């Protein structure tokens, strides 16, 4: 597969591993105090485990798995809202497959479907719009979740629905933004991250400029990376090079897909359809200022929150995390998943207690599913 | 997050709705081009795009891809040189 | 004496109704007009049970093997096969991987009211064709009709009986560290073909189901590699589940070499689009055999000589353990656990 296979070449990877080994010392990593590099994006977490990269880098370097998994950070109360909407008469509730198993306070969408709600998995928001077209007497609701990468897709879909006058279609908007939680993490005095691997696909939309504060205000390097193993390894080399040279800059390893200024068409669609919420609740991280968006009043007819009266924070207590769950500390990089007392015992992929065990992109699930000897460490 | 994969635009399906058929290793799917093109779409046939949830979100820059691969290859050569240098340095040290 | 008056059989047409399950004439017409004809059971008087002559292999010290399996699939017809072929070959394969030579099948159909009789006919003919290709006979059957909504179009259950020749013993408990695992071809075609055929993901692909009878292939492998320890077919849950099951049952571990997995471009593309792992995609014509290292080459060659094993490949080796642990060595020299799935793979965006 073009643009994929070339970036999975094991022969080239060997050179990168050697380079990482020779750079990690000059960059400041020691066995006692390894460098902590956060891969922000769950896609990177997934790739690290899928290719076993975590076990191939030297012990002086440690991956910290960041908050970039929209399913993992979705508060339970929002899943409850989904189920409330899905249970209404006449509703067809459409979601990406990722969200099906996410536990709400009482049940998941998967369980709600088994109980009789009409819940369908779709590949694209446009497929949900198509369902609305084919079922004019039903109310089709699309569960819009994801970061800046996914936002233009739901925005364009809403605009298409509006242009068509497809009034039986609406979006339950749970879109969230990448930079605000990074600021929150970096402002946490407990944090001791050394650098970041930036999310490639979010960046193809927003460009590299929005990360500037990470270098300028917090003095940390960030390298935007693609998702193939060579991409990731090269990005790590670039972060280490910056650390070794005492630089903190925003660099772009993934230039074949990420233009420096992002995608202006996509940004315009986001701007036209969404506006920031004053704050949004992140599972494990809590409320973060201006970290989520809602649908603008102009498109209120397509806003499921308005249509079904399940507005954000409408008198609801914030979703409480299960007792003893340390997802928040894992997301902050303060502990590794096996250090959580619930990991592997009460919290397993079959019965996820915490958010990070839910999606295969979640750090805990990735550890559990792919973690090799790590699982024994937990036992 | 954000699964995105490269595909080749095989045909324009509905110019008005900005829909193309995109080929992923022999698997095809309708993909929305709103975010990567204004105006006429026909010129885009044959172009590689990065697709996320049924939307093309970026036109892949072939030249940049080549540059990245070249950088990777050069890194390899440089590493080999370093390795050779390290080896000869070690040999020199070993000499009495 | 006058011959008994036999009313002319009416070929049933239209849709299946509850009357076709009522035990009366309509049912007789359906059974005789659709199934007896297709399965080639005509001629001999029909009784409520098949009466079977034991094959030579059974009389000379062989053992009987019996299995049963239910088949539900949406859509009933898909590229590369249909529910009938799955129902016949699925049971044939369950017998074959145990070392049995399959002989007879029974068929039970649960039919949803309203199904086109023409659909039933197509399924019945497909089953006959499948049985002929696999060299087995359908010897008895049953139909039930349930009210609309009581089933999804058509459920088929088959049971099969075969004979394991004297001296042949296959089982996961025999698998030992050092044994080599070989699969008979490209992975994941069935799962991908079904998902594409359902149309929900709106994917167009030429991928066809891999469904196939594997008894011939098994015999070829067993004669080339008589020391074969165990074979399993990789159905739901894919190759990953098969390896986990064998590793758990044998108290060994397993190491897959990622670079050696038989994966074709289209399946890889399909998996990239939906975020799937081909190791978990369903197959209906794939098996893994576990053979002692000394017989691996012979087993592989025998597979590749067979029409259902052209792309056969050695995929890895049985290890000391930990017991039940399946590990994949990635092309990068890394490794990861390949666990069983919690449920179905769900298409993901992230």
| Number of spatially distinct domains of chain C | 2
Taken in chain order, the helices and strands of chain C follow as HHEEEHEHEEEHEHEHEHEHEEE
Order of helices and strands of chain A: HEHEHEHEHEHEHEHHEHEHEEEEHHHH
- CATH class annotation of the largest domain in chain C: Alpha Beta
Gap between N and C termini of chain A: 40 Å
CATH class of the largest domain in chain A: Alpha Beta
Low-confidence stretches of chain C: none
Q: Count every beta strand of chain A, where a strand is a DSSP E run of 2 or more residues.
A: 13
- Computed CA radius of gyration of chain C, to the nearest angstrom: 22 Å
Q: Note the main sheet of chain C.
A: 7 strands, mixed
Q: In what order do the strands lie side by side in the largest sheet of chain A?
A: 2-1-7-8-9
**CATH fold label of the largest domain in chain A:** Rossmann fold
Helix content of chain A: 25-40%
Provide a descriptive summary of the structure in words.
- By secondary structure, chain A is α/β, with parallel strands linked by helices.
- Chain A has 15 helices and 13 strands.
- In chain A, strand 1 (35-41), helix 2 and strand 2 (61-68) form a beta-alpha-beta unit.
- In chain A, helix 1 (10-24) packs parallel to helix 10, helix 2 runs parallel beside helix 14 (363-370) and helix 6 crosses helix 11.
- Chain A is globular and about 65 Å long.
- The relative contact order of chain A is 0.15.
- Chain B has 96 residues and is α+β, with helices and mostly antiparallel strands.
- Chain B has 2 domains: 5-60, SH3 type barrels; 61-96.
- In chain B, 34% of the residues lie in helices and 33% in strands.
- Chain B is built from 1 helix and 5 strands, in the order βββββα.
- In chain B, strands 3-2-1-4-5 form a 5-stranded antiparallel β-sheet, with no helix packed on it.
- In chain B, strand 1 (5-14) and strand 2 (19-24) form a beta hairpin.
- The longest helix of chain B is centred in the C-terminal third of the chain and has 33 residues, at 62-94.
- Chain B starts with a strand and ends with a helix.
- The relative contact order of chain B is 0.15.
- The model of chain B has no long low-confidence stretch (mean pLDDT 89).
- By secondary structure, chain C is of the alpha+beta class.
- In chain C, the strands form 3 sheets. Chain C has a 7-stranded mixed β-sheet.
- Strand 3 of chain B pairs antiparallel with strand 8 of chain C, so a sheet runs across the interface.
């Amino acid at each position: 597969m073009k643009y994929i296979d070339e970036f999975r070449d094991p022969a080239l990877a060997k050179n990168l591993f050697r380079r990482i080994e020779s750079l990690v010392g000059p960059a400041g990593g020691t066995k006692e105090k390894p460098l902590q590099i956060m891969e922000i994006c769950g896609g990177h977490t997934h790739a690290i485990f899928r290719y076993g990269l975590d076990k191939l880098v030297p012990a002086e370097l440690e991956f910290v798995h960041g908050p970039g998994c929209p399913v993992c950070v979705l508060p339970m109360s929002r899943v409850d809202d989904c189920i409330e909407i899905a249970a209404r008469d006449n509703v067809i509730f459409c979601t990406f497959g990722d969200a099906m198993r996410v536990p709400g306070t009482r049940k998941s969408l998967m369980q709600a479907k088994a109980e009789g709600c009409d819940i369908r998995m779709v590949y694209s928001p446009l497929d949900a719009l198509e369902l609305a077209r084919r079922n004019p007497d039903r109310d089709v609701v699309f569960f819009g979740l994801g970061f800046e990468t996914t936002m233009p897709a739901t925005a364009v879909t809403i605009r298409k629905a509006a242009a068509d006058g497809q009034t039986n279609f609406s979006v339950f908007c749970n879109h969230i933004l990448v930079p605000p939680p990074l600021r929150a993490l970096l402002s946490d005095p407990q944090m001791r991250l050394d650098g970041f691997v930036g999310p490639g696909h979010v960046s193809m939309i927003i460009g590299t400029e929005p990360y500037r504060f990470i270098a300028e205000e917090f003095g940390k390097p960030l390298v935007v990376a693609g998702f193939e193993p060579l991409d990731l390894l090269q990005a790590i080399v670039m972060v280490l090079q910056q650390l070794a040279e005492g630089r903190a800059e925003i660099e772009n390893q993934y230039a074949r897909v990420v233009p420096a200024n992002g995608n202006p068409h996509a940004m315009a669609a986001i701007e036209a359809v969404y506006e920031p919420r004053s704050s949004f609740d992140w599972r494990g991280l809590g409320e973060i200022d201006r970290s989520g968006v809602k649908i603008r009043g102009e498109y209120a007819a397509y806003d499921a929150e308005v249509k079904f009266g399940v507005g954000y924070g409408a008198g609801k207590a914030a979703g409480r995390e299960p007792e003893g769950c340390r997802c928040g500390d894992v997301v902050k990089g303060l502990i590794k998943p096996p250090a959580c007392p619930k990991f592997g015992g009460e919290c397993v992929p079959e019965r996820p207690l915490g958010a990070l065990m839910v999606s295969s992109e979640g750090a805990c699930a990735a550890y559990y599913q792919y973690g090799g000897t790590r699982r024994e460490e937990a036992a | 997050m954000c699964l995105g994969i490269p595909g080749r635009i095989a045909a324009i399906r509905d110019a008005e709705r900005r829909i193309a058929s995109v080929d992923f290793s022999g698997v095809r799917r309708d993909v929305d081009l709103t975010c990567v093109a204004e105006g006429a779409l026909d010129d885009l046939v044959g172009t590689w795009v990065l697709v996320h949830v049924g939307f093309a979100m970026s036109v892949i820059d072939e030249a940049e891809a080549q540059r990245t691969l070249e950088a990777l290859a050069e890194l390899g050569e440089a590493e080999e040189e370093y390795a050779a240098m390290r080896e000869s340095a070690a040999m020199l040290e070993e000499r009495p | 004496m006058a011959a008994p008056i036999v009313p002319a059989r009416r070929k049933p047409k239209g849709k299946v109704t509850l009357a076709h399950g009522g035990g009366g004439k309509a049912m007789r017409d359906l059974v005789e007009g659709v199934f007896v004809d297709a399965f080639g059971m005509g001629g001999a008087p029909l009784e409520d049970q098949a009466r079977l002559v034991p094959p030579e292999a059974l009389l000379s010290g062989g053992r009987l093997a019996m299995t049963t399996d239910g088949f539900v699939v949406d859509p009933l017809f898909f590229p590369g096969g249909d529910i009938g072929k799955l129902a016949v070959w699925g049971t044939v394969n369950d017998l074959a991987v145990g070392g049995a030579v399959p002989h007879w099948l029974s068929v039970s159909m649960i039919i949803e009211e309203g199904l086109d009789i023409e659909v039933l006919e197509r399924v019945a003919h497909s089953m006959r064709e499948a049985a002929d290709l696999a060299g087995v006979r359908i010897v008895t059957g049953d139909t039930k009709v349930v009210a609309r909504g009581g089933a999804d179009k058509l459920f088929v259950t088959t049971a099969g009986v075969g004979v394991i020749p004297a001296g042949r013993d296959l089982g996961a408990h025999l698998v030992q560290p050092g044994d080599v695992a070989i699969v008979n071809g490209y992975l994941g075609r069935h799962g991908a073909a079904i998902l594409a055929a359902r149309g929900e993901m709106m994917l167009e692909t030429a991928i066809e189901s891999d469904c196939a009878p594997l008894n011939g292939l098994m015999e070829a492998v067993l004669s080339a590699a008589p020391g074969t320890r165990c074979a399993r077919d990789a159905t739901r849950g894919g190759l990953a589940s098969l390896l986990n099951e064998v590793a758990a049952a044998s108290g060994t571990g397993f190491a897959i070499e990622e670079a050696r997995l038989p994966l074709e471009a289209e399946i890889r593309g399909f998996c990239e689009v939906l975020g799937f792992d081909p190791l978990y995609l369903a197959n209906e014509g794939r098996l893994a055999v576990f053979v002692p290292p000394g017989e691996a080459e012979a087993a592989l060659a025998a597979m590749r000589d067979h029409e259902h094993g052209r792309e056969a490949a050695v995929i890895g080796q049985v290890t000391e353990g930990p017991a039940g642990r399946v590990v994949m060595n990635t092309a990068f020299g890394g490794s990861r656990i390949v666990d069983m799935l919690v449920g179905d793979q769900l298409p993901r965006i992230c």
